[in-house]
Amino acid sequence: MVLDVSDELEMHDQLNFLAHHDALTKMPNRHGLYDKLDTLCQEEHPFALLYLDLDRFNVINDSLGYHVGDELLKEVASGIRAIVPKEGYISRIGGTDFVIVIENDPLKDSISSLADQLMQHIQKPVTVQDFEIQITTSIGISFFPEHGKSKLELIENSRSSLYHAKRQGKNNYKIYFDMKDISSYKKYILDRDMRKGLINEEFEIYYQPKVNTDGVLVGAEALLRWNHHEWGLVSPEDFIPIAEENHFINDLGDWVIKDVCIQLKKWKEKDVTLRPIAINISPIRLMKKGLVEYVKQQLELYQIPGNYLEFEITEESLLKSDITVLSTLEDLKSIGATIAIDDFGTGYSSFKTLREIPADTLKIDKVFIQHITDENKVDAAIVSSSLHLAKGLGLKILAEGVEEYEQLEFLKQKECDFIQGYLFSKPVVLETFEQMLQTGYLSPSKKKLSKKPEIERRAFYRFEFPYRVLGNMTITEVKNRKVNLGATPILIENISLGGIKIVSLLRLPINSDMKFMFAFTLMNELFELEGTLIWKDDAKGDTFFYGVTFNLTVQDEDRLAPIINQMSALQHATKQIPDTDFVYEDSFSYLRKLHS
Fold first, then answer.
1. Burial code of 157-179, b = ≥16 C-beta within 10 A, e = fewer?
2. pLDDT of 77 over the 50 cut
3. Which among 353, 355, 409 is positioned nearest to 380, based on CA atoms?
4. Which of 143, 138, 137 is nearest to 176 (CA)?
5. Separation of alpha carbons 456 and 452, rounded Å
């Protein structure tokens, strides 16, 4: 007997193919990728993993339909095949996620060049069913074995880098950084301790007052702070992105809502005049079901009218203006809460969005307020136009970051409704804000609030460098526990036998339990000196000044003292200081470039 099993074999081959390949692009799928990575990890040959995700692809599906989206994915897949070397392995592991594996001991420079080529090719306009479409991609990169020795570790680390690239503005790539410097070490510690910090009540709310242009208190914004047991008071700019990555942002947001309601009840029981409190809502929380029900539950539990809550949403939230988001915002308004659009003008808001979103207030970002009194009238025109727009739409408008009396006068003349900024008050602790509620009025300060710390006045002669000197620092000890980290770049402004003044992008705690090592070269002599941070002050942009006190040995002092004297003599003689790593460009831009 002869039995023809050709159809069965063909079906078996098809099923086997579909089990390990994506049906749309015919590329290997997640299972195929896992098999490939398992083999490579076992062979222990170095390779690179590039994790690609198409930016804002949901806009294509929502506006043009999934059939157009599928065709566009095929075009993207074809473009990736054309760019990636023949020996490269390409897979689509779901949605808009592609993973590329490059073997044969890849160099970081060549992988970075490949990432650039991919981004440039993908962003070229393509025509799909008569629609000309332009899209971009963000890429995260990790290397075996440097960034992980298992498939899951490598994929997770490259995804982490991908999200970092998206936060930097999309159409960008980032190489994974592990715990080799202070910044990544801090991120690891905060990620590890976040849930425990909420349980141990390390989080607290600061309140930044909102006033009208006459100084009458009209409310406040609730700002979350973390009193970490090692890093001190941690800024939301440090821990909020981590909370969004590890999906803890929803728990933090709900905690803020509950705590604000508790405080409103306490003030009500004390017969303190209540003012609305604004709470920032993450786009992730806005998309998750149950927000309105949770808010109603807290309002009923603590017997607080809904009009004492305002929810601030960013323009990133507005990009997700689908039925779910719009319905959530409408439901929040139905229980009495108001809606404010935060950081207006810095993102992608359109007039159409303003028409659709049921907002009550626009908050003009401080980046426009800072320069409204300068000779360059661009920002003044933007602010004036925003005020006119808000009035026409029946919205209130609040100016953020008001720090100078002249800015207040300008905004007052333009009939701005509300003011928020250091001219009236920085964010304050609960007890201080309660006193403000009882007073009901704040006076503007005509002087700048920032001043040079008294502790900067050292007992030793301090030499001011003609230009800042490049150095690096690392943490060597935390609470008597030794740590082994790589170096982070710093710029040194002045030096004495007592210590140095440095500029850094890092937010660091002024904590005597944290010991540092500072390394720099002066006149061809390398110094590696132990020290502790003793004060901190804001510098330009996102940079900070730190005062460092040295813990010098007698040998270190004997080496450093004559170098300082020689540099001082050369400077008095108007001669150049040789063999020293001076940085001649803007400190903020230079440090940004090193960290990018």
1. bbbbbbbbbbeeeebbbbbbbeb
2. yes
3. 409
4. 143
5. 7
